[in-house]
Design a protein that fits this description.
This protein is of the alpha/beta class. It has a single domain, classed as Rossmann fold (3-Layer(aba) Sandwich). It is built from ten helices and eight strands. The strands form two sheets. Strands 2-1-3-4-7-8 form a six-stranded parallel sheet, with helices on both faces. A hairpin with a 5-residue loop joins β5 and β6. The protein is globular.
């Protein structure tokens, strides 16, 4: 029986660690008793990667990083620490060296981008009345409302920051594509996944917030990663 690594969950833009709530509960039910969900400031890619690495360094043992959306860029940046054994991307950005979220998004625009606007302080917000249709169209209205009102806006600097050497070039990777995603074009997700040569790619008929709308298949993918890693 393989040992289970510590799972460190990394959220993306317009959310916080609590976006992983359903995934956390299901992982716990399946015997993952070492779980952490990073609360990143969303102020810059460097800040968020540094905060995530602080969390990783507190773990004595192997770590499996799981990133959603912009969290994929964060684990790409932060995942080169020696105790990181794998990377799981959930409808996530996976930039190569020199790429930013902006440059990736411009190559294949997604419709939700039209509903993002900066405020006078440089934070990017999704219009509340457009949040559900953009970010989580397959969630119940009440859940979508809470996400919209409680959204954690990133600074625009995080959207345009270029990535450094990607951890996915040296670590095993798994990827989940959301086929109805309106924030990251599904074909863009497929392109990013393919160039990483993942151990496994799954596609879910879900919106961008697949971690909330389809947590069970997400945890299945994490289980697959742990089995393949075969940690002793």
């Amino acid at each position: 029986m393989s040992a289970k690594p510590t799972v460190v969950l990394v959220h993306g833009f317009w959310g916080g660690a609590a976006h992983w709530a359903k995934v956390i509960v299901e992982l716990w039910r399946r015997g993952y008793d070492s779980l952490h969900a990073v609360e990143n400031p969303l102020t810059s890619l460097a800040d968020d990667a540094a905060r995530t690495q602080q969390m990783i360094k507190q773990v004595d043992g192997p770590v499996l990083l799981v990133g959603h959306s912009y969290g994929g860029a964060v684990i790409t940046e932060a995942g080169d620490l020696p105790n990181v054994v794998g990377l799981v991307y959930v409808a996530a950005f996976a930039p190569d060296k020199g790429e930013s979220l902006a440059s990736i998004g411009e190559a294949a625009p997604a419709p939700g981008g039209a509903n993002i606007a900066p405020d006078s302080d440089g934070y990017l917000w999704i219009r509340q009345d457009k949040f559900q249709e953009s970010f989580c169209q397959d969630l119940p209205d009440d859940e979508a409302l809470v996400m919209a009102v409680a959204q954690k806006a990133p600074l625009g600097a995080a959207y345009v920051a270029p990535a450094s050497d990607p951890a996915w070039r040296a670590k095993p990777v798994w990827y989940q594509v959301s086929t109805e995603d309106r924030m990251i074009a599904p074909d863009n997700q497929r392109r990013m996944a393919a160039r990483m040569n993942p151990r496994k790619t799954i596609e879910l008929a879900s919106g961008h917030a697949s971690l909330a709308s389809q947590p069970l298949p997400i945890v299945d993918l994490i289980d697959d990663a742990v089995r393949e890693l075969d940690l002793k």
